[in-house]
Structures are given as structure tokens and as C-alpha cells.
Write a structure and sequence with these properties.
mainly alpha, 5 helices, 123 residues, single chain
Length: 123
């Protein structure tokens, strides 16, 4: 199996699978409810999982439930979907970086003479 096919299966397929599992798991319990995360881990997670923040920002705030002077917003299903999509995009992004590094390492390791000999044998 070629490296590009593996990349597509692992990054895109894994992202879709993770997003689908989280989406169906979050029907009964919204994502992140009841999960206690220490402050230091939460700070690192916000930096590493930046696609979640981008998707959450694009989803916008939920409906306004507070008085005019207090801006309180309710969580909406659109924001649940944005978090799940963000987790899937995080997986795809970081797996793509890993496969890119593997591809660069593989390209660097093979000298051009080996490539030309191999190509001439397979013609």
C-alpha cells in the first residue's frame, strides 16, 4: 500500500471515525460534561487542539438567555457539532504532519542512484 493511501486512510478515515463516534456518543451526554481537567493540562490542550477553538468560534455564541446587561449564552447543538468536527480536524491535521515527516524521512534516505536503478528494473 502506498504512503499516500495510508495517509488518507489514517488521517481522513480516522478523523471521520472519531467524529462519528463522538457525535453519536454525545447525543445522550454533551461533549465535555462531567470531565474534570487540571488547569495545566487544559492550557496545553487549548494550544494543541486549536482546530476545536476555530470551529467553536465559527459556530458562534449560542442563544442569548440572560438580561440585556448580562450576556449569558446557552450551549447549542451546533456548538456540540463544532467541537466534534474540531476534534476530527485535530486528528487529521496532526496525522498529516506525522505522515509528512515520514515521507520526508523516506525521501531523504533513498539516494538518487537507488531510485534510478529501481525504476529501470521495473520498466
Amino acid at each position: 500500500m502506498r504512503l499516500k493511501t495510508r495517509w488518507l486512510l489514517v488521517s481522513a478515515g480516522g478523523a471521520v471515525l472519531i467524529a462519528a463516534v463522538l457525535l453519536f456518543a454525545s447525543i445522550d451526554t454533551p461533549v465535555g460534561i462531567g470531565v474534570e481537567i487540571p488547569g495545566s493540562v487544559g492550557a496545553v490542550a487549548k494550544v494543541v487542539l486549536w482546530p476545536i477553538a476555530v470551529c467553536f468560534y465559527l459556530a458562534g455564541p449560542g442563544p442569548n438567555i440572560g438580561p440585556a446587561k448580562k450576556h449569558l449564552h446557552e450551549w447549542s447543538p451546533v456548538q456540540d457539532f463544532a467541537v466534534v468536527v474540531g476534534i476530527g480536524l485535530s486528528w487529521a491535521f496532526y496525522m498529516s504532519i506525522v505522515f509528512l515527516l515520514i515521507w520526508f524521512r523516506h525521501k531523504r534516505r533513498l539516494p538518487k542512484t537507488v531510485n534510478s536503478r529501481f525504476a529501470s528494473r521495473n520498466r
